[in-house]
Design goal:
With about 250 residues, the chain is mainly beta. It has 2 helices and 16 strands. It has a 5-stranded mixed β-sheet, with no helix packed on it.
Length: about 250
């Protein structure tokens, strides 16, 4: 007849059993500096969550949803919740059995490679304690989206012509600049730095056109060769900057 295990042996058996994972929900939202949430039409943001101590990937994905309510975001009291039910978010459920020091890396906007920036943040996450209150884990991305519409890349023009330069400048969430809206075109300084066959041809200041909501200038094609353009945008009130490049040939 087999003997029953002692109480001490039972205690030892219980102690060596693995701890049960506790599902823990995390919400990550990414907001453009001085503007709205990144997601939806402005392109999602890539999210990677890792264990800061081991490097283990805990979750990855992209934000989805709208840019949020302008009034709620821009006019809300300091510390008040900015997001609503439709605001862009990345949701993850982590199965963790112990406190984890977690790092989130956010990269975007993914549809605008010339404007992509990355930010990281690290904090403790405790099993069973959901990180979902308010805006959840809110991370800010700086920058502006600068997109050159004219001239087309590497188009040919004749010597003596004037080339029209036109560029769109928006907040990183895709929110447009305007004369009287929440994001003022008058706060933006937009310049084109041009080189001709590698030699500087001097900066050109771009002026805002309210009808097209874009910035423009005229560049004289005075000499044959390769013209390279770098459009630089700066918004001092929000400390945001953006850059885009293009080139054309003159013959």
């Amino acid at each position: 007849m087999r003997s029953l295990p002692s109480l001490a042996m039972c205690a030892a058996i219980i102690l060596v059993q693995p701890a049960l994972a506790d599902p823990t929900d995390v919400e990550v939202r990414v907001i453009a500096r001085g503007a709205k949430f990144l997601g939806g039409y402005a392109a999602p943001v890539g999210i990677v969550m890792t264990d800061a101590d081991t490097g283990e990937t805990l979750a990855r994905g992209t934000t989805s949803g709208t840019t949020g309510d302008t009034q709620r975001i821009m006019a809300g009291e300091r510390g008040a919740r900015k997001s609503d039910a439709d605001s862009a978010v990345f949701r993850a459920r982590l199965d963790i059995d112990r406190p984890r020091r977690v790092t989130v890396q956010v990269t975007g906007p993914l549809s605008q490679p010339q404007a992509v920036t990355t930010a990281t943040s690290t904090q403790w996450i405790l099993p069973g304690h959901h990180l979902t209150a308010g805006d959840g884990w809110l991370i800010e991305l700086p920058g502006l989206i600068v997109d050159i519409a004219d001239p087309m890349a590497y188009q040919w023009v004749k010597k003596g012509e004037t080339v029209r330069l036109r560029a769109g400048v928006t907040m990183l969430c895709g929110c447009a600049l305007s004369e009287n809206g929440p994001w003022r075109a008058s706060d933006a300084e937009v310049e084109a730095h041009v080189t001709v066959n590698g030699a500087s041809a001097g900066p050109y200041k771009l002026q805002f056109d309210a009808a097209s909501a874009s910035f423009g200038a005229s560049i004289p094609a005075t000499a044959p060769g390769l013209y390279e353009i770098e459009v630089r945008a700066w918004m001092g009130p929000s400390n945001n900057a953006g850059v885009a490049r293009a080139a054309f040939f003159v013959r």
